[in-house]
Amino acid sequence: MCYEIKKMITKTYNCPLCKTKHTVKFPKDFAEGRASYPFVHSFIHKYSPKSYSPDTGRDILTMLYIDKNLEIRHVETMFQNAEGNIVSMEDAQKMISFLTQQLQDLQDSYDELLKKYNELKSKNPPSKASDWEGI
Fold it and tell me: What are phi and psi of 92, to 5 degrees?
């Protein structure tokens, strides 16, 4: 599979806990094929208020409700409980599987490009050894 760099869409939201404006980026096709809209996109960000607080640096579970046009319709946030796991084992395994597949796709693309590069190199040998230095 050939890896394709996707166009990213930048969106902003205001965190109700730290009262700070944050930006997030999504691939342009991020909302495609969802079972229903708005759908939930969850992630963790650090508590970063404008002035120091004892909670500064704590993890905040952030849930964005996103419509089919990638508009953020609602934001819910909560502090992560130090003892609790936010991500279930099933979700963690899905994420690991997805990331592993992405790494494999990148490796396959690299291998394919390297093969093509070596083929071109063998078909067009340099006129002198220094022509290939630094490549």
Answer: -60, -40
Confidence at residue 3, expressed as pLDDT on a 0 to 100 scale: 46
- Separation of CA 134 from chain center: 32
Closest residue by Cα to residue 67 from 103, 41, 94, 106: 41
Say if residues 99 and 91 touch (Cβ distance below 8 Å): no
Buried residues in 64-87 as b, exposed as e (16+ CB within 10 A): bebeeebebeeeebeeeeeeeeee
Q: Is the pTM of this model over 0.85?
A: no
Across the 135 residues of the chain, what is the mean pLDDT of every consecutive 10-residue run? 68 88 90 90 80 76 92 89 63 78 89 91 74 59
Strand ranges (DSSP E) for 7-129? 8-14, 21-27, 39-46, 59-66, 72-79
Cβ–Cβ < 8 Å for 121, 132 = yes
DSSP 12: E
